[in-house]
Amino acid sequence: MSGSVSYHAGLAAEDSVARHYSRSGHRVVERRWRGKGGEIDVIAQFGGDTIFIEVKKSDSHAAAALRVSDRQVRRLFDCAGEYMGGLPDGMLSSVRFDVALVDAAGRIEIIENALAA
C-alpha cells in the first residue's frame, strides 16, 4: 500500500471507529489530538470516563493487533498524560485505553481497557 493510500485508509478507519463509539452512546471529544509527543487517534467520554483510543487497520484484526508497538503504547501514555492535565480532575481522572482494530472489510473489533497495567 502506498503512503498516501495507507494514510487515507487510516483516516477512514478512524472515522469509522469514531462513528462506532458515537452510536454506542459515547461522546467523541477529539480526533487526531496532537500533543508534544505524538497523536491520539480518538478521545471519547462515557459517563465520567475519558477513553483514549488507538486505531489500527490491517487485512485482519489479528494483523492489526500486531501493529500496536511498545513505542506507540509509550507515546499514547505520554500524550494521554498531557491531555489529562487539562481535565477537571487532572491526573486523577478516570481513564481507559482502548484499541480499535479494523479489518480490510471495515469490521471493527474494540478491545476495551487493552492497555491496562
Automatic annotation (TrEMBL):
Coiled coil segments of this chain: none
Record keywords: Endonuclease, Hydrolase, Nuclease
**InterPro entries, alphabetically?**
Restrct_endonuc-II-like, tRNA_endonuc-like_dom_sf, UPF0102_YraN-like
Q: From what superkingdom does this record's organism come? A: Bacteria
One example of the protein's molecular function in GO is: nucleic acid binding
* Similarity annotation: Belongs to the UPF0102 family.
This one is known as Putative endonuclease
